[in-house]
Amino acid sequence: MPPAKHLEGYPSCKVAKNLPNDQIAFQTHFMVPQGFVSGIRFAIFINPEAYFSLPSAAKRKELSGVIGQLNAALTDQRFICVGPGRWGTLNTDLGVYVSYADICNAEALVELAGRGIGPAPEPSLGTHFFQDLMEAQIFPLAICVDHPDTIFNREFFYNTPNSLSALLSRQDWIASDDLLTQSIHLIDVSAFRPGHHLDLAMDDEQGLAMAYFMPDT
C-alpha cells in the first residue's frame, strides 16, 4: 500500500449527493475539513452503550491498550476510529481515553454525539492532540446522530461481526474479557459488504463529509 494516503484537493472531495443511504456508512455536516481517503479496510468502533456501561473509569482506560494494539497491528492497512464523545480526553465520562500513540496510524478520528451516546460535550475534533493530527493528516470529524441530515449506518457499525479476536488472537486476556470485547469492535468492511472498502470524502465548501462503500475493482 503506498505511503501517500491523503489527497487534499482531489476531485473526489466533491462529495456525491445522490448516493442511496445503503451505500453510506456515515454522513455529517459538522465542521468538515477538506480531504479524501481511499481504500479504508477497517473501522475501530467503540460501542457507546457498552462503553458507558463499563463499571469504572479504570476499566474504560483499559481500552486504550487494546486500541493501541490494533493501531500497531493495522499499520499496513487503512482504518478509521469511531467512538462516543471526545477522543483523547482524560475524563472517561466525556469520551475515549487514548494517547496519540494509540491512534497514530488511523486515517480519521470520528466523534459521536446524540441520544444514547452518553454525556453531550462539545466535540473536541481532536484538540487533545490537534497538532499531531494535522502533521500526520489524520482527519478529525464529528457526527451528531440526532441531526436530521446525518446518516449513521447502525447495521454496519453494530451488526458486522467483530474481528477483534481474529487480529489479536494471541492476546488471551482480551478474548476472555467480555466487557472489553463488547465495548470495542474491529469492523472489517468486507465482512459487511464482500469485495468492498470505504472511501471517505470531505468537502469543506459543501460542508459535507461522507464515508461510502466502493467496490475493490
- Evaluate the radius of gyration: 16 Å
Integer tally of domains: 1
- Distance linking N and C termini: 15 Å
Helix residue percentage? 25-40%
| Biggest pleated-sheet summary | 5 strands, antiparallel
Name the poorly predicted regions. Answer: 1-5, 7-12
Shape: globular
The counted number of beta strands is 12
Report the structural category: alpha/beta
Number of helices: 9
Mean of residue pLDDT?
85
Following the backbone from N to C, one meets helices and strands in this order, namely EEEHHEEEHEHEEHHHHEHEE
Notable characteristics:
disordered N terminus, five-stranded antiparallel beta sheet, alpha/beta, five-stranded mixed beta sheet, 217 residues
Descriptive report:
Helix content is 27%, strand content 28%. The N terminus is likely disordered. The longest helix has 17 residues. By secondary structure, it is of the alpha/beta class. It has one domain. Strand 7, helix 4 and strand 8 form a beta-alpha-beta unit. The radius of gyration is 16 Å and the shape is globular. It has 9 helices and 12 strands.
Helices and strands in order:
Elements: E1 24-28, E2 35-40, E3 42-46, H1 48-53, H2 57-73, E4 79-84, E5 86-87, E6 95-96, H3 100-103, E7 108-113, H4 130-136, E8 139-144, E9 151-152, H5 154-159, H6 164-167, H7 172-175, H8 178-183, E10 184-188, H9 189-192, E11 196-203, E12 208-215
Parallel strand pairs: 3-4, 4-7, 5-6, 7-8
Antiparallel strand pairs: 1-9, 1-12, 2-11, 3-10, 11-12
